[in-house]
Amino acid sequence: MNSNQEWKSRKDAATPRGVGVMCNFYAARAENSEIWDIEGKRYIDFASGIAVVNTGHRHPKIVAAIQQQLEHFTHTAYQIVPYGSYVELAEKINQLTPGKHAKKTAFFTTGAEAVENAIKIARSATKRPGVIAFSGAFHGRTSMGMALTGKVDPYKIGFGPFPGEVYHAPFPSELHGMSVEGALSALQTLFKTDIEPAKVAAIIIEPIQGEGGFCVTPVAFMQALRAICDQHGILLIADEIQTGFARTGKLFAMEHYGVIPDLMTIAKSLAGGMPLSGVCGKADIMDAPAPGGLGGTYAGNALAVAAALAVLDIIDDEKLIERANQLGQRLTNQLHTTMQDQGVKSRVAEVRGLGSMIAIEFKHPESGKPDADFTKKVQAYALDKGLLLLSCGVYGNVIRFLYPLTITDALMTEALGILDAALRAN
Questions:
Q1: pLDDT interval class at 1 (50, 70, 90)
Q2: Taking a C-beta distance cutoff of 8 angstroms, is the pair 47, 27 a contact?
Q3: What is the tally of structural domains in the chain?
Q4: Residue 408 belongs to domain spanning
Q5: Rounded CA gap, 255 and 53, in Å?
Q6: What Pfam families does UniProt report for this protein, alphabetically (predicted)?
Q7: What does the pLDDT look like over 207-246, one tens digit per residue?
Q8: Could you say which of 239, 250, 282, 371 is catalytic?
Q9: What mean pLDDT is predicted for residues 156-185?
Q10: 345 annotated active-site
Q11: Which of 217, 282, 325, 347 is deepest in the core (most CB within 10 A)?
């Protein structure tokens, strides 16, 4: 068996540097909240494949569902020969997403695909070109996804020009000097200086920004967006790709707001590790594109759909929504305990989040400016001790916590001990 270093040498020779790889080890196997590398070292997974395995690695019910589907067929292309499981999953998503209105759902393969198709649907339904996104947003690496993304490095450097009629407004963050009132005022200025509201098809927003730093959209701002969209005939798109499927202590983060979006994008933990995404929305809006306008060769793959049906059962049967709130509270309590150390406290700008979508942002203790270097040190220390952490934020100064919601209490205790030591050691 090759070593981690041997595989790294082969990777460097065979794959482009643009596919950035965070870890210096190679996975051999994974189970629930643990990953073992090819040299036998174990890691506690606080990344979940970037929020993909809320139900843990290789959950037995997901494995069984995929195995059962393998006995029948792997691929027919739903648009050529359909299958009932796709329809069944759409029915369940229509029922579970916020709002009691008539809905329809279409499935795709990746989160970026879901975003692309949500924009297509919005433009088709409104006959308008414009789309507004927010600073710090992340909506994917495709051409339209990059255009919507409000973070330049590394996602947009050298890849322009981007699709037109995409505009950005400031995301409200008191920590970074942008109030709700200021953000709403800037949006009205955008309507005066860049695009009239009657030309805007959609406003797209993450209830909690992912790559942007786990910044929680204020309730007042989300409610104001809904009113603005209603006033001008603009569609509100909730990007729930990272926030969905129990992560925030609700099945979907929009449930925290009392606001019903017109369209919602879903992916990541939808299928517990299998590639599947979707767009769910008001039935009349979803029906705007003509037959053939939506789809994809692998869109709604049968194996991924089988996994997704199992995921929904697991979330319900194992009460993962409640579990997300319990685990998030444990994590938050531990962070505040560690922050009783004045050296640690001086470096923490904020602890924030909902449910188990929690982050800690770091600042320089003297200047108060974002401290990406300290963030990297915490991440490196934890990795050396066997805890996998992800960073995020426009300035790269945020650690986000994305453990599987199925993590055992014992493993959570072990991980929090490593995290405590990582924060104190630097």
A1: low
A2: no
A3: 2
A4: 4-58+319-425
A5: 21
A6: Aminotran_3
A7: 999 999 999 999 999 999 999 999 999 999 999 999 999 9
A8: 239
A9: 96
A10: no
A11: 217
Angle in degrees, CA 401, 406, 410, rounded to 5: 85
Picking from 270, 291, 317, the residue at the C-terminal end of a domain is: 317
| Known active-site residue 103 | no
pLDDT of residue 2: 84
**What CATH number should be reported for the domain holding residue 21?**
3.90.1150.10
Q: Say yes or no to pLDDT of 201 above 90.
A: yes
User: Which H or E run includes 378?
Assistant: helix 372-384
User: What are the φ/ψ torsions at residue 201 (nearest 5 degrees)?
Assistant: -80, -40
| Helix, strand, or coil (residue 6) | helix
Query: Which residue in 283, 279, 256, 272 sits closest to 204, CA to CA?
Result: 279
- Active site annotation includes 268: yes
Do 205 and 334 sit in the same domain of this protein? no
Domain co-membership, 358 together with 264: no
CA distance 140 to 316: 29
Q: What is the mean pLDDT of residues 147-151?
A: 96
Our measurement of the distance from residue 188's CA atom to the centroid of its chain's CA atoms, rounded to an integer in Å, reads 28
pLDDT at 426: 75
Task: Please tell me the number of Cα atoms within 13 Å of 316 on its side-chain side.
Answer: 8
Query: Which among 318, 248, 267 is positioned nearest to 115, based on CA atoms?
Result: 267
Of 301, 317, 333, at which residue does a domain stop? 317
Which of 46, 138, 221, 245 is catalytic? The answer is: 138
Q: Which pLDDT value is given to residue 386?
A: 98
